[in-house]
Amino acid sequence: MDVNSLRSQFPQLKESVYGKPLVYLDNAATSLRPLSVVQAWDEMSLKHNSNLHRAVHKTAVDATEKFEATRVAVADFIGASSPKEIVFTSGTTQSINLLAACLENAGFFSEGDEILIAESEHHSNIVPWQMVAARKGLKIKVLPVDNNGEILISRLPELLTPKTKICCVAQVSNVLGIINPVREICEICHANGTLFLVDGAQGVAHLTTDVLALGCDFYAFSGHKMFAAPGVGVLYGKKQLLDSLPPYMGGGEMIESVSWEKTTFAPVPGRFEAGTQNISGVPTLVPAIELCKQLKTSEIEKEQEKIKNLILEAFEKDPDITLHGNPVEREKKIPLFSISVKGAHHEDLSLILDKMGIATRSGQMCAEPLMDRFGVTGMLRASFAPYNTLEEANYFIECLQKAIKMLK
Amino acid sequence: MNTLEEAKSAVVEEFSMFDEWLDKYEYLIELGKNLEVFPVELKTDSRLIKGCQSRVWLDVREEGGRLYFRADSDAIITKGIISLLIQVYNGRTAEEIRQDDFSFVESIGLRENLSPTRANGLNSMIETIRREAEKNA
Predict the structure, then answer these.
(1) Residues ≥6 apart with Cβ < 8 Å to A298
(2) d(CA B85, nearest CA chain A) in Å
């Protein structure tokens, strides 16, 4: 598949804004949706709509089959040992909140225990842990990054103590675009008896994920950042760990039997899926996964590589631009670029680029502690997807330079 | 002094000269650069309206039944819009401001700069001006 045939699958790429063709470079916030995903959603809504796991009628059976087939596809996609290790949620944020609450309710934490979180994490991988920490009297410790944005693995041994119960790190930082060495961190954590959670929100669409090879205990991601419907997410957990956790919410199909005296709960993963599920949304993961697999072709990857090099070289040439997230090895970065520009505010840049047809993100990007780390109040981010072209990358650089000139 | 309605019309008319978005921004940037310098000692936390995007500082002073504003922002386009707001609302009575709906900002096509997101310091600035007017009316 080449970029042009890929683009033809995304109708929104033909839209224009302010009379200019849309150049969508806010993919880290949410990706655009391909026709296959919209059609899958349509089909579920218009042909197979029925509540899951309950009724015996044909439509309900069909809907349930599609839902459960998605679980199988997701397990296969991320290399889980069994579909029972796949819990459907509303997104990464809910996945992490579910995990934090369930660990708490399982009595996993005692007062004085520690949670280790990377400095570059998204708020969604910080705040749920802070909330548990406040309730249980836990200590949050920070695994720092260096000036390039790379996690300082060398600091791990001193940060990990017998009280460190879980360590939480993103596969790829949503601000820095750096592919973190999660496998190495995981090994060190496990040697310490510490559980390891990977936030895969930014990684899942860009990388090939194999949770078994990675070794992590939990892996969370969202559908909407990998072309699927919004409101769909996944929490992967090792089966024996999920088995040890109590339910998250009560009601719906999460039970085994209910009586006034004693209610028992369904086995995993159903135990964690209370209430009516996202019937139409979840099955859109199947075409989304299919597309993600197709994108791992050399032609598309080559184009992405070219874009990355073009942008990095343009930034390196400009002394007024500081790139945040500049790993020593270029392969450790996905085409996601956050910058500060001397003499130009990120909001101004984003507003001007918008009027040129380019959608970027400006601000703290849900990573306030990282902004503090780099001593900035916000950044400008351009995040590319495989449907973005080299031509768009060139146009972005050209417009960025124009915008900077306007502001000086 | 012109009336509030006259001041608003003048701004709307000024903006109607621009067909192109970028020209509009060029003008706002110019206004932002020329905004009266905001005294550093007034840049206190109590005057800071913190948003996800830009930061806005606002100082309100009441004198002889009229409200006077000084403001600043780290983003220049926001500063330009601040300049417009000051041009229109400075020296008005609290009652005049209280009765205004601030919709002129929308009529000059700056609606997206006022989108109701947490990100928006400018929105909060208008809210603060309104609140001060309520307090003094």
Answers:
(1) none
(2) 18
Element (H, E) at A139: strand A139-143
If one counts the domains in chain B, the total is 1
Q: Which of B18, B24, B31, B53 to mutate to test the interface with A (most CBs of A within 10 A)?
A: B53
Q: Are strands A218-222 and A195-199 parallel, antiparallel or unpaired?
A: parallel
Which residue type does A130 have?
Answer: Q
Nearest to A347 among B21, B22, B54 (CB): B54
ipTM for the predicted complex comes to 0.86
Considering only CB atoms, B26 lies closest to which of A18, A377, A406, namely: A406
Do B114 and B105 meet the contact criterion of CB atoms below 8 Å apart? yes
pLDDT, tens digit, 9 for 90 and up, residues A112-161: 999 999 999 999 999 999 999 999 999 999 999 999 999 999 999 999 99
- Percent of chain A clearing pLDDT 90 (strictly above): 94
What pLDDT digit, counting tens, does each position of A249-289 carry?
999 889 899 999 999 999 999 999 999 999 999 999 999 99
Question: How far does A371 lie from chain B, in Å, by closest CA?
Answer: 11
Q: A361 to chain B, minimum CA–CA distance in Å?
A: 10
CATH of the domain spanning A38-291, picked from 3.30.110.10, 3.90.199.10, 3.40.640.10, 3.40.50.261: 3.40.640.10
- Contact across the interface for B77 and A347, Cβ inside 8 Å: yes
Q: Name the E strands within A188-299.
A: 195-199, 218-222, 233-237, 255-257, 264-265
CATH number assigned to the domain covering A3-30+298-407: 3.90.1150.10
For residue range A150-207, list pLDDT tens digits in order: 999 999 999 999 999 999 999 999 999 999 999 999 999 999 999 999 999 999 999 9
Find the CB nearest B74 among A352, A355, A377. Answer: A377
Which tens digit of pLDDT belongs to each residue from A363-390?
Answer: 999 999 999 999 999 999 999 999 999 9
Query: In whole angstroms, how far apart are CA A253 and each of A65, A257, A269, A270, A380?
Result: 16, 10, 11, 7, 44
Residues on chain A touching B55 (C-beta within 8 angstroms): 377
